[in-house]
């Protein structure tokens, strides 16, 4: 069967290991994420998902292993050549384990959200989306004399940033709350605003750490629709950590399962959810025929 994560990966993780003292949080994990796919990283609490995310996005420097990323083609020969050099990228292929978080965000164009909401609560919803675009604005002299003088290049950049922010607010149903402090919005709205903020960076890969955490069933459904629409537009691939199987099974093209820091399964959602090792390890039960377990992995469990 042809799969994009094999034929056309945007991300290739090879033998990634992350140790904290004597604890191996991620143990020799390899997988690929397909260009244009939604790839879900699942596993029980403490499996190493967030640690792996933190390695991808430059918050941790992995103990060993390689993370190759490209908005173009991930060509094996070029990856090897880059690996032998001391460089971080060749202009198109990036070795993320060699890069700092800000370089990964700006040059490779990976954007991420966190398990805990990290908006600026006192700033308005619109301002939160404008801040995300600060680099584009500063490039157009936001902080320089040209910005103070309101020169045309800056005015155009500012208008483009406002337009993009407004379009995202509209899309997530928050245009009418544009001027309200982000911290005053209901929890589910804040989660969507965080995704909009990440999308204002126009990422090639959007990395979401438990975007459905704390959402009710209707909000989870809305979130899944939003992510599917982002994926279908074809500009942004998505990698998400998620415990809510209804979201995972509804939108994922590819599921990678970790347990105790190791990869235990990797494939299409249907294959993975029927894998006895996943049923046993992910849910901490021995009996793969347990109907409640099957319902949870199928995303049908009552919440
Ligand atoms: N900074 C750190 N220092 C020491 N140990 C850590 C650190 N970060 C994570 N760990 C440990 O690494 C292991 C994996 O944790 P991690 O948060 O990556 O798991 P997870 O799969 O994301 O879990 P959850 O689903 O609960 O968020 C855990 O045993 C955790 O205690």
UniProtKB/TrEMBL annotation:
<dbReference type="Pfam" id="PF00005">
    <property type="entry name" value="ABC_tran"/>
</dbReference>
<dbReference type="Pfam" id="PF12399">
    <property type="entry name" value="BCA_ABC_TP_C"/>
</dbReference>
<dbReference type="GO" id="GO:0015192">
    <property type="term" value="F:L-phenylalanine transmembrane transporter activity"/>
</dbReference>
<dbReference type="InterPro" id="IPR027417">
    <property type="entry name" value="P-loop_NTPase"/>
</dbReference>
<protein>
    <submittedName>
        <fullName>Amino acid/amide ABC transporter ATP-binding protein 1, HAAT family</fullName>
    </submittedName>
</protein>
<dbReference type="InterPro" id="IPR003593">
    <property type="entry name" value="AAA+_ATPase"/>
</dbReference>
<keyword id="KW-0067">ATP-binding</keyword>
<dbReference type="GO" id="GO:0042941">
    <property type="term" value="P:D-alanine transmembrane transport"/>
</dbReference>
<feature type="domain" description="ABC transporter">
    <location>
        <begin position="11"/>
        <end position="285"/>
    </location>
</feature>
<dbReference type="GO" id="GO:0016887">
    <property type="term" value="F:ATP hydrolysis activity"/>
</dbReference>
<dbReference type="InterPro" id="IPR051120">
    <property type="entry name" value="ABC_AA/LPS_Transport"/>
</dbReference>
<dbReference type="InterPro" id="IPR032823">
    <property type="entry name" value="BCA_ABC_TP_C"/>
</dbReference>
<dbReference type="GO" id="GO:1903805">
    <property type="term" value="P:L-valine import across plasma membrane"/>
</dbReference>
<dbReference type="InterPro" id="IPR003439">
    <property type="entry name" value="ABC_transporter-like_ATP-bd"/>
</dbReference>
<comment type="similarity">
    <text>Belongs to the ABC transporter superfamily.</text>
</comment>
<dbReference type="GO" id="GO:0005524">
    <property type="term" value="F:ATP binding"/>
</dbReference>
<keyword id="KW-0547">Nucleotide-binding</keyword>
<keyword id="KW-0029">Amino-acid transport</keyword>
<dbReference type="GO" id="GO:0005886">
    <property type="term" value="C:plasma membrane"/>
</dbReference>
<keyword id="KW-0813">Transport</keyword>
<dbReference type="GO" id="GO:0015808">
    <property type="term" value="P:L-alanine transport"/>
</dbReference>
<dbReference type="GO" id="GO:0015188">
    <property type="term" value="F:L-isoleucine transmembrane transporter activity"/>
</dbReference>
<dbReference type="GO" id="GO:0005304">
    <property type="term" value="F:L-valine transmembrane transporter activity"/>
</dbReference>
<dbReference type="GO" id="GO:1903806">
    <property type="term" value="P:L-isoleucine import across plasma membrane"/>
</dbReference>
């Amino acid at each position: 069967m042809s799969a994009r994560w094999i034929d056309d990966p945007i991300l290739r993780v090879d033998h990634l290991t992350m140790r904290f003292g004597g604890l191996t949080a991620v143990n020799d994990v390899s997988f690929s994420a397909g260009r244009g796919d939604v790839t879900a990283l699942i596993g029980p609490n403490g499996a190493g998902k967030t640690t792996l995310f933190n390695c991808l996005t430059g918050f941790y420097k992995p103990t060993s292993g390689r993370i190759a990323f490209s908005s173009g083609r991930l060509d094996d020969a070029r990856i090897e050549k880059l690996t032998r050099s001391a460089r971080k990228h060749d202009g198109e292929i990036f070795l993320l384990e060699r890069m700092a978080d800000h370089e990964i965000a700006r040059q490779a164009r990976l954007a991420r959200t966190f398990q805990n909401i990290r908006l600026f609560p006192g700033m308005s919803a619109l301002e939160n989306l404008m801040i995300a675009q600060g680099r584009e604005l500063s490039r157009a002299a936001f902080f320089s004399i040209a910005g103070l003088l309101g020169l045309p290049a800056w005015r155009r950049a500012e208008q483009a940033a406002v337009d993009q922010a407004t379009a995202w607010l509209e899309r997530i149903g928050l245009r009418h709350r544009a001027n309200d402090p982000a911290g005053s919005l209901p929890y589910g709205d804040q989660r969507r605003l965080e995704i909009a903020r990440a999308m204002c960076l126009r990422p090639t890969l959007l990395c979401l750490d438990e975007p459905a955490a704390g959402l009710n069933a209707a909000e989870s459904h809305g979130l899944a629709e939003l992510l599917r629409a982002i994926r279908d537009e074809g500009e942004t691939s998505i990698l998400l950590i998620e415990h809510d199987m209804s979201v995972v099974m509804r939108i994922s093209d590819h599921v990678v399962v970790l347990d105790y820091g190791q990869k235990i399964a990797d494939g299409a959602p249907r294959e993975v959810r029927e894998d006895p090792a996943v049923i046993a390890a992910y849910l901490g039960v021995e009996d793969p025929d347990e109907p409640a377990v099957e319902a949870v992995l199928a995303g049908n469990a009552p919440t």
